[in-house]
Amino acid sequence: MARVFNFGAGPATLPEDVLIQARDEMLDCDGTGMSVMEMSHRGKKFVAIAEQAEADLRQLMSIPDNYKVLFLQGGASAQFAMIPMNLKAARGDGSADYLNTGHWSEKAIAEAKRFLNVNVVADTKPSKYTLLPAADELKFNPNASYVHYTPNETIAGAEFGYIPESGDVPLVADMSSTILSRPVDVSKFGIIYAGAQKNIGPSGLTIAIVRDDLIGHAGADVPAMFDYKIHADNGSMYNTPPTYAWYIAGLVFKRLLANGGLEQMKQINERKANKLYAAIDQSGGFYRNPVALNARSWMNIPFILKDDALDKPFLAEADKAGLSALAGHRSVGGMRASIYNAMPEAGIDALIAFMHDFAQRHG
Ligand code: PMP
User: Fold this and answer.
1) How many structural domains are present in the chain?
2) Which of 104, 229, 246, 272 is catalytic?
3) 229 and 357: one domain?
4) Whose CA is nearest to atom 5 of ligand 1?
5) Has residue 271 got a pLDDT over 80?
6) Which residues, including other chains, have CB under 8 Å from residue 43's CB and lie 6 or more apart?
7) What is the rounded CA–CA span in Å between residue 252 and residue 246?
8) Active-site annotation holds for 174
9) Counting atoms of ligand 1 from 1, which one is nearest the CA of 195?
């Protein structure tokens, strides 16, 4: 049974050496006689695994000491609610500025509206989310409680090439599909959050990196599981955390550190993405990526074929060639190649060779 190249958007491919280590430790992790899945989250072994994972993530992302790293559940979708619940009263007038640049921004906005007044300060829906606002077009309310945006929209494949300047207003970023793909200056953000299942590890784990001054402002009506302070005060072990996902994430962090960290990932990711965009752009119109050049994502690359009648044969033949999960999101159709950190360059090369061959035969 051969492994395929999995271009799924998440849950997504994991590094093979991480999977091999997990397999080797499945029945007996480090002389404990048990799998990490079976350990108490409060036992010595798991606490060491958890602390090491946090230390490694702090090192990888150069996270300043005045930020807590929380290992949560509920996915990025739970953060859509936790953010307004925790930040509404932290500062400002209790409203929030949101950038609407895609499907996930829309979801974040809809959820925030349950809790506070949302001002949509930029909306690229009229472009079908193929454009992003220019930095100097953004005008924020200086009294807002926070500004929220989605640096990389996973479905449209649109990624900001800059960090919005929100002044003193805390900037909150849904980095689900771009975290760890390159270095980022954490100090520019109030909160960075991400579901793990794309660039970190298995689903079930959500990471939130929260600046200290934004913790402790949840109202009395906020349930304990939605209060950052409860999780921070309890080292993300207020309840049973997603231990196995936390462990796998730790293996991924170790591997990234051993392979040159995020600066190295940036170079590899840029090269991988540029290769694939070049293959699309040089296909004589057989393939097309609809996103504006300055908004092209390194992580999620959607493309359409010149005739959508070719979609089915493309996907079927790709599957046979060991290139899996290339169908675009059900809301947009077409194709999408998600090429997170764990997608080897050989996977990009194989996809490009297949695309070229398919275009020759169907052109
Ligand atoms: N935000 C972004 C940018 C995403 O890509 C996704 C998942 N595809 C989500 C949020 C939702 O994440 P979850 O399923 O972890 O709630």
Assistant:
1) 2
2) 104
3) no
4) 154
5) yes
6) none
7) 10
8) yes
9) 15
Burial class (CB in 10 A: 0-12, 13-18, 19+), 193: buried
Domain extent for 287: 260-362
* C-beta separation of 46 from 39 below 8 A: yes
Res. 2: pLDDT tops 90: no
Q: Residues comprising the binding site for L-glutamate?
A: 42
Per-residue pLDDT at 331: 83
Give ipTM to 2 decimals: 0.99
- Which of 56, 68, 97, 174 is labelled catalytic? 174
Describe the strand order of the beta sheet including 287-288 as a list of residue ranges: 287-288, 300-305, 335-338
Distance 260 CA to ligand 1 centre (A): 27
Residue 104 bears catalytic tag? yes
Looking at the structure, do residues 352 and 230 belong to the same domain, yes or no? no
β-pairing verdict for 95-100 and 117-123: parallel
- pTM summary value: 0.98
Q: Assign residue 264 the CATH number of its domain.
A: 3.90.1150.10
CA-nearest of 2, 23, 170 to 96 is: 170
Binding positions: 42, 76-77, 104, 154, 174, 197, 239-240
Residue 1 in any domain: the answer is no
Report the sign of the C-alpha dihedral through residues 152, 158, 161, 162, in that order.
negative
